[in-house]
UniProtKB/TrEMBL annotation:
NCBIfam families cross-referenced by the UniProt entry: aroA (TIGR01356)
One GO cellular component term: cytoplasm
Superkingdom classification of source: Bacteria
Gene: aroA
Pfam name, any one: EPSP_synthase
Upper lineage: Bacteria, Bacillati, Actinomycetota, Actinomycetes, Micrococcales
Gene Ontology molecular functions: 3-phosphoshikimate 1-carboxyvinyltransferase activity
Record protein name field: 3-phosphoshikimate 1-carboxyvinyltransferase
Biological process terms in GO annotation: amino acid biosynthetic process; aromatic amino acid family biosynthetic process; chorismate biosynthetic process
C-alpha cells in the first residue's frame, strides 16, 4: 500500500487521527502504583535514532531500502514526511508487519526537490539531519516546528550550512524557524563547527556528506561534544551502506564522496525506551525481560547493562538476545539501594531523566554530572527534573551541569511533562511507589513510544502481549486509546 499520496497541506502519512486528542487523550493520567513484584517480557518498538538515520540515507541512496520493524512514532513520522517532501517515495511492505506497524520500502529521490516547508515538530533528529540533506535540493526549503522547538539550539547546523556556501535566513538567530536556499549541489571539503550543544549537528552533516562533491572533513571546535556514541552510530550506518566514513580523532570526522547503497535492514529495539521498563524493577522489584536486545550495538541504551547493577539489579544477556533484569527486593517490597554518582559526558542525555527519577528512592545522595546539554533537549531537562523531583518531596540541588538528589519524604503531586517523553516516563517510574502522582501530559510519549501507556499497564498486569489496538483509518497501527 502506498503510504504517500502527497496532496498538499492536508497530507498526513498515517491518517489524521494518530495524534488527535480523540486517540491520545489530552487529560491527566494517574500513574499506577505497583502492588506486586514484576514478572514480564516487554517487546520494545524500533530505535528512533536508527530509523531516522536510515530514512535519511534511504532518500539519498542509489537503490531502494527496506526497513523492517522501524519505529512508527511522531519523530519518525515527521522524518518520513520530510524526506518524502524532498522527493523520496515511501510505501508499506505487504508482508511481515511487526507488532508495532508495517515494514517500509523507501525509493530514493531521483533529484531532491526544494520549494517545501518542513515541520520538525520537536524532533532534534529532523531539525538537525534534514537541513544538510536539503542543501542538495534545488530551491528554497523552510524549517519550523513546535513552539518548544524554537528554543532548541540550531546554530551548529545553520553556521555549517553557511560554511558550505548556502544562503540561510534565520531571524530567530541560531534557532528555528529558518529558511535556506539550495543550489542543487554542495562542494563540501573541510568545515569547522561548534557541536558542543548537540552531537546531532555532526551526525546530520556526515549523513549527507557522501553526496557532497568533495565529501566532508568535519572538525569540531569548542567544548566537548555530547553523545559521542550517536556519532559512532552515524558512521556505522554510513559504512553499512558502503560509504567510507571514519573518525580521524575525537573531534574530527571524514566522509568520502561516493554512492550510498540500498539496504534491507531490521531495526534494533530502542534501548533508551527500554530504560523505564528496566528501571521499574528497581522500584517495583521482580523481573523484566526485553527480547531482541542486540548483542552488538552503537545505541547508548546498551549502557543500561552497566548502569542497572549500580542500582542493585542483576542483568544478564543471553546469546539469543534476551535481556533479563532482576531485583530481589524493590522499593515497594522495602528494599533499598545507595545513591549513585554518574558522569554522562560519554553517555548523552537520553537515559538521564529516568535515572534521576529512580535516584529519588536512594537511601543516600546521588550526583549526576556532565548533563548541561540536556538544557537544550525537548525541554530544559535539568530544571524540569529539579522542579518535579522537588515537588514530590526529594531534596534537589540544580547546578549548571549537574543534579544532586537527596532522599526526602516522597508524596503525590501533579508531575509536569513539559512535552518531553522522557519526563513523562520518569513520572511513571516515580508513580510506581508513590501514590497520587498524576502526569499532566502522558501523550508526550507519542514522540518515540506511542504505546507507552499500554505497555506500562501491561507490565504491571504481568502481560504485555495484548495486540496493539488498530484502527483501519490509520493504516492499521498506532491508535492506542488512553
Ligand atoms: O543522533 C541522535 O539520534 C541523537 C543524539 C543525541 O542528541 P544530543 O547530542 O543533542 O544530545 C540524543 O540525545 C538524541 O535523543 C538522539
Ligand atoms: C533528546 C532527545 O530527542 P531529540 O533530540 O532527537 O529530539 C531524546 O529522545 O531524548
Amino acid at each position: 500500500m502506498e503510504i504517500f499520496n502527497y496532496s498538499g497541506p492536508d497530507f498526513d502519512i498515517y491518517g489524521d487521527q494518530q495524534y488527535d486528542p480523540l486517540v491520545l487523550d489530552d487529560g491527566p493520567w494517574p500513574a499506577p502504583t505497583a502492588t506486586e513484584a514484576l514478572d514480564v517480557e516487554v517487546e520494545i518498538p524500533g530505535s528512533k535514532s536508527i530509523t531516522n538515520r536510515e530514512l535519511v540515507l534511504a532518500a539519498l541512496a542509489e537503490e531502494p531500502t527496506t526497513l523492517r520493524h522501524p519505529l512508527h512514532a511522531r519523530d519518525t513520522q515527521l522524518m518520513s514526511e520530510a524526506v518524502h517532501q524532498l522527493g523520496a517515495q515511501i510505501s508499506e511492505v505487504e508482508e511481515g508487519a511487526g507488532r508495532y506497524g508495517p515494514n517500509l520500502q523507501i525509493t530514493p529521490a531521483a533529484e531532491l526537490e526544494g520549494g517545501v516547508s518542513i515541520d520538525c515538530g520537536l524532533s532534534g533528529n529532523v531539525m538537525r539531519f534534514v537541513p544538510p540533506m536539503a542543501a542538495l535540493a534545488l530551491g528554497p526549503v523552510t524549517f519550523d516546528g513546535d513552539k518548544a522547538a524554537h528554543k532548541r539550539p540550531m546554530s551548529g547546523t545553520i553556521e555549517a550550512l553557511r560554511g558550505l556556501g548556502l544562503d540561510v535566513n534565520d531571524d530567530n538567530r541560531g534557532r528555528l524557524p529558518f529558511s535556506m536556499y539550495g543550489t542543487g549541489e554542495v562542494e563540501g571539503g573541510e568545515l569547522e563547527i561548534d557541536a558542543s550543544s548537540s552531537s546531532q549537528f555532526v551526525s546530520g552533516l556526515l549523513l549527507a556528506a557522501p553526496r557532497f562533491k568533495k565529501g566532508l572533513t568535519l572538525k569540531h571546535v569548542g567544548d566537548a561534544v555530547p553523545s559521542l556514541p550517536h556519532i559512532e552510530m552515524t558512521l556505522e550506518s554510513l559504512r553499512n551502506r558502503g560509504v567510507d566514513a571514519h573518525s580521524i580523532d575525537e573531534r574530527t570526522w571524514r566522509v568520502e564522496p561516493g554512492p550510498i547503497s540500498g539496504i534491507d535492514l531490521t531495526i534494533e529495539p530502542d534501548l533508551s525506551n527500554a530504560a523505564p521498563f528496566l528501571l521499574a524493577t528497581v522500584v517495583a522489584g521482580g523481573e523484566v525481560r526485553i527480547p531482541n536486545w542486540p548483542l552488538e550495538t552503537t545505541q547508548v541504551g546498551d549502557l543500561l547493562r552497566e548502569i542497572l547493577p549500580q542500582f542493585g539489579a542483576e542483568v544478564t544477556l543471553s546469546a539469543d538476545g534476551l535481556l533479563t533484569c532482576r531485583v530481589e527486593r524493590g522499593i515497594v517490597q522495602g528494599g533499598s539501594f545507595e545513591g549513585v554518582t554518574m558522569d554522562f559526558s560519554d553517555a548523552g542525555g537520553e537515559l538521564v531523566p529516568n535515572i534521576a527519577a529512580v535516584c529519588a528512592f536512594a537511601s543516600s545522595e546521588s550526583k549526576l554530572t556532565s548533563i548541561g546539554h540536556l538544557r537544550g533537549h525537548e525541554t530544559d531537562r535539568v530544571t524540569a527534573l529539579a522542579t518535579e523531583l522537588t515537588a514530590i518531596g526529594a531534596e534537589v540541588d540544580e547546578l549548571d551541569e549537574a543534579l544532586v538528589i537527596r532522599p526526602g519524604e516522597l508524596h503525590g503531586a501533579e508531575w509536569k511533562c513539559y512535552e518531553d517523553h522522557r519526563m513523562a516516563t520518569s513520572g511513571a517510574l516515580v508513580g510506581l511507589a508513590v501514590e497520587g502522582i498524576t502526569l499532566d501530559d502522558v501523550k508526550s510519549t507519542s514522540k518515540t513510544l506511542p504505546q507507552f501507556v499500554e505497555l506500562w499497564e501491561g507490565m504491571l498486569a504481568g502481560d504485555t502481549s495484548a495486540p496493539v489496538e488498530t484502527d483501519p483509518t490509520t493504516n492499521g497501527f498506532l491508535t492506542t486509546e488512553l
